[in-house]
Amino acid sequence: MKKIIALLLCLLMVVGMVACATNTDNNDQTDGSQDTTPATENSDSSDDTNGNDGDVVTITYSYWGTPDEAASVQAVADKFHEEYPNIKVEVMAIPNEEYVTKLNTMATAGELPDCGIMNESGVLDFASDGLLYDISAMYEGADSMPLDSITFKSEGKPVAYSAANEVLSLYYNKDMFDAADLDYPSATEAMTWDEFVTLAKTLTLDANGNNALSPDFDKENIKQYGCVVDNWTWQLEVWALSNGGRWFTEDGSACTINDPKVIESIQKVADLTLVENCMPYNAGLEDNGMQRSLLTGTVAMATAGAWNVGTCLATARDEGLNYGVARLPKMVNEVTICTGGPQVVFSQTKHPEEAMTFIKWYMKEENSWDSLIATGIWMPILEEYYTDETLTNKWIDNPNFPDHDEYKGAVVDYARDCAESTCWYYIPHTTEFIELLRTVLGPVWTGEQTAEQAITENYDALNAVFMGE
After folding, report:
1. In a domain, 34, yes or no
2. Where is the sequence biased in composition, kind Polar residues (predicted)?
3. Which of 181, 199, 318, 419 has the fewest beta carbons closer than 10 A?
4. Same structural domain for residues 139 and 95?
């Protein structure tokens, strides 16, 4: 996900540079001419630095990228300076592989930049060390706030907001459903897990055309699988929540990944391959769920993030993929999880108001509309896009998206009503925790261990990581 967000931010930066040199009319985005120049009217309290009076304050903004990309990012910063002439932003480019190490070194030396981008799983580590500024006032007086589910909180206070929203949903091949004479999954009501398993087995076919429910089914010669439930580790948290469990207590005080409900949720995912024969084996080592499912033409349903609409599904549809989107199946509770790369203000800044002004400007939907939101790569962060029909339609009424009613029910309304924060929004040390959990679960996917054996044997190590030991 970190690589995806980095790639998308670079795309935004390049488009932002292009936007600096163009000025189009603000037409409906369906005709491709949506203005990407940030709006300046209706400014909130954090935008009070707009104007021409007073001295110019210079702030630094860090991001992961190459020096060659710095010119594109700087062009975006210069566009901001045109609107806020009292604030100048200097871009600090740090190679991706050195980013966290470099920031830690700068933090020790008291030389952190004023603001910058971070990966989701590192935000609370910095916050717990007192390195992030309390941004509670950033949206003070605003007409609409970012969704609570994409708000990073430390001791109950916001320390970052995701620059985009992304939720998990179920995507499916309509032609495969039509061939089997099956109704499409619902965009407004989640099917039960048992219904999902039966459906996946019905859509799993061997070389002779027998499905996985047939006594004649040949599991050694499968030509079409019914599903891929992505086992890229962070995405597995949704099934714990769906089954009534949690990786961590809601207040973040304890690691509860050994809860029987959590263990059962992991085993149910593994059993799609090991018992039900309706999902291909995957080691869970790469973030490639869509690439190995619907895009192969051999899988009927796949769980995946909303970003896939823009990164690959729109192109695949142009090439013949007839796909739809629905809500995830539910084990007990109807739930999805969300994520999105954050922009932060570092606590060592001497100019917190100016840094918050830039970050807030940088995350405005209009600044990423044509390149990221209208394409389906990013979802808006403000609540009003999920509650105001006019804004929702502005967002999803375009040819890059699947059917309007499907997407609204399975993504927009789903994100508004059923999304819970992924653990990194309220728990530190999630980078190390998820990396260890990925290793722990390896034998579960092959059937060498049950989920109960793997979690029980490794709980002390997982808990130690959670405790920061």
Report:
1. no
2. 23-41
3. 181
4. yes
**What long-range pairs does 371-375 form, CB within 8 A, spacing at least 24?**
371/11, 371/12, 371/15, 371/16, 371/36, 372/8, 372/11, 372/12, 372/15, 372/164, 372/310, 373/164, 374/29, 374/34, 374/398, 374/400, 375/309, 375/310, 375/314, 375/400
User: In the listed set 323, 353, 382, which residue is the last one of a domain according to the structure?
Assistant: 382
The total number of structural domains that make up the chain: 2
Q: What are phi and psi of 326, to 5 degrees?
A: -140, 175
**What residues form DSSP beta bridges with 303?**
170
The answer to whether residue 418 is domain-embedded is no
Distance, CA of 363 to CA of 256 (rounded, Å): 34
Q: Which residue spans within 174-233 are E strands per DSSP?
A: 205-206, 222-228
**SS3 call for 308:** helix
Radius of gyration of the chain (CA): 23
User: If pLDDT is split at 50, 70 and 90, which confidence band does 134 have?
Assistant: very high
Q: What is the CATH number of the domain that holds 85?
A: 3.40.190.10
Rounded distance between C-alpha atoms, residue 405 and residue 331, angstroms: 24
Residues 153 and 209 in one domain: no
Q: What whole-number distance in Å separates Cα of residue 383 and Cα of residue 161?
A: 13
Q: What is the mean pLDDT of residues 350-368?
A: 94
- CA dist 111 to 13, 88, 92, 149, Å? 25, 18, 12, 31
> What confidence category does residue 53 fall into, taking pLDDT thresholds of 50, 70 and 90?
low
Residues 6 or more apart whose Cβ sits within 8 Å of residue 257 = 240, 247, 248, 437, 455, 459, 462
Q: Please give the span between the terminal C-alpha atoms of the chain, in angstroms, as a whole number.
A: 26
With CA atoms as reference, report the closest residue to 138 among 39, 42, 47.
47
**9 pLDDT higher than 60:** no
With a CB cutoff of 8 Å and minimum separation 6, the contacts of 35 are 23, 24, 25, 26, 27, 366
Could you tell me if 330 and 281 lie in one domain?
A: yes
Q: Which of 300, 207, 227, 279 is nearest to 445 (CA)?
A: 279
| Tens digit of each residue's pLDDT (9 = 90 or more) over 433-464 | 999 999 999 999 999 999 999 999 999 999 99
Q: Is 26 helix (H, G, I), strand (E, B) or coil?
A: coil
Mean per-residue pLDDT for 94-120? 93
* Single-letter residue type at 273: T
Decide if 33 is inside a domain.
no
Do 149 and 252 share a structural domain?
Answer: no
Is the same domain home to 207 and 77?
no
- Name the most confidently modeled range: 25-39, 112-126, 197-211: 197-211
Read off the pLDDT band of 368 (50, 70, 90). Answer: confident
